[in-house]
Write a structure and sequence with these properties.
By secondary structure, this protein is α+β, with helices and mostly antiparallel strands. The protein has 9 helices and 20 strands. The chain has 5 domains: about 80 residues, no CATH class; about 100 residues, no CATH class; about 80 residues, Immunoglobulin-like; about 70 residues, no CATH class; about 45 residues, no CATH class. The longest helix has about 30 residues. The N and C termini lie far apart (about 170 Å).
Length: about 375
């Protein structure tokens, strides 16, 4: 059964004109009517179909508008400049949590969290000019992303920037996502001594287990750190703090690794003397080490005082005192001054005895006590006998 596409009246398959309205029934119109019949929706429901169609069309338009709006809003929110704005807001509000969410590192070994993001935040606070430069560089990166329409390479080998903008992925398959890329930093610690203890920002990080020790630390968030090296030896205790600025070092040297040679002012020396059995004293303390055994003595720090003591003829002689400095490799502890003093003492005693003998002879011959008075201890029995 077919229907007139104008009035909806039933028409036969062979009829050329509608029996009700008289319209010429064209083949194409009949085909459309046949289609309506096949779907079970006659032209009698034409008004209902139109209303549903209108609703569907309106709904589709609304959905399209919403999708378009979402796309426009999402595209605007995903602009790289928005990431830079969020960074500025996080820094100004000192929000470590938000800052950590914005940061990214190509090196997966660098764990980014609130604790280490604080180092970068503190650096920005202490160096406002550096922050100003970073924001300018990031805005330049925004221009490249937005105008050139292609991704910048993250951390290329010839790039000395510690902080830059980076494309990381797409959100919801459509929108690009950007973060603030930070270049991780490392420390290479060198020391010539065994048993040097190291701590970074008051946290113990290791101890040298041999001489000529090398240890690599990191990766670290860019910022400023304090590396403490401490040594407790037999003759000297020493510690030194090394201030490490990863950001400035990267900018100057284009190098992610900072090399620290720790406690280089601690050195070993060879001690010599004309008395090999003399005992060495360091900063007025006995060492129990004889000169003949001090081929590689130490380590010592600059300003350490050394001298030696030897016993001769039941007398203890003290050598000269030597202050160790970093350029010293050999120390000679000599007893020339002590020996001279002994000789002078012997000569003085000898002279006193000779003068007393001469004075005694004169005193006996002339009965004059005054010729020997200067050589006799006042109040002694000899002194009283001579009066």
């Amino acid at each position: 059964m077919k229907f007139c596409n104008k009035c909806g009246a039933k028409v036969g398959d062979e009829q050329k004109f509608c029996p009700k309205c008289g319209i010429n029934l064209r083949d194409t119109d009949l085909e459309e009517v046949a289609i309506l019949e096949a779907t079970g929706n006659g032209v009698k429901d034409k008004s209902k179909i139109s209303s549903g169609t209108k609703i569907s069309i309106i709904s589709a338009i609304i959905i399209a508008i919403l999708l378009l709006g979402c796309f426009v809003v999402g595209n605007d929110l995903s602009k790289p400049s928005k990431t830079v704005s969020k960074l500025e807001q996080a820094i100004n509000s000192e929000d470590k949590n938000e800052l950590a969410k914005l940061l990214y590192s190509k090196d997966s070994r660098l764990e980014i969290n609130e604790d280490n993001s604080e180092y970068l935040l503190n650096y920005f606070k202490e160096n406002p000019l550096f922050l100003e430069k970073v924001i300018k560089d990031l805005n330049d990166d925004c221009f490249k992303f937005e105008s050139l329409g292609k991704d910048n390479e993250i951390n290329p080998k010839n790039d000395i920037k510690t902080i830059r903008l980076a494309y990381v992925r797409k959100k919801f398959i459509v929108f690009p996502s950007y973060k603030i890329s930070v270049k991780p930093a490392f420390i290479e610690v060198k020391t010539a001594l065994k048993d040097v203890e190291f701590s970074l920002n008051s946290v113990e990080i290791g101890k040298s287990d041999k001489d000529d020790y090398i240890m690599e630390l990191g990766p670290f968030m860019p910022g400023r750190y304090d590396l403490l090296a401490s040594y407790k030896g037999s003759y000297v205790d020493l510690e030194n703090t090394y201030n490490i600025d990863f950001i400035n070092s990267n900018n100057e040297n284009n190098n992610e690794k900072i090399i620290v040679e720790a406690l280089v002012n601690l050195k070993f020396v060879k001690v010599t003397s004309e008395y090999p059995d003399a005992e060495i004293f360091v900063n007025n303390k006995e060492t129990g080490v004889k000169v003949k055994d001090a081929v590689n003595f130490g380590p010592l720090s600059a300003g350490t005082k050394l001298y030696a003591v030897v016993t001769l003829e039941d007398k203890k002689l003290k050598s000269n005192e030597v202050l160790f400095n970093e350029s010293t490799s050999n120390i000679n502890l000599n007893f020339k001054e002590a020996e001279r003093e002994i000789r002078d003492t012997k000569d003085s005693v000898k002279d006193s005895v000779n003068n007393y003998v001469r004075g005694f002879v004169t005193a006996v011959n002339y009965g004059s006590f005054y010729d020997v008075e200067d050589y006799i201890y006042p109040g002694s029995s000899l002194y009283n006998d001579e009066l």
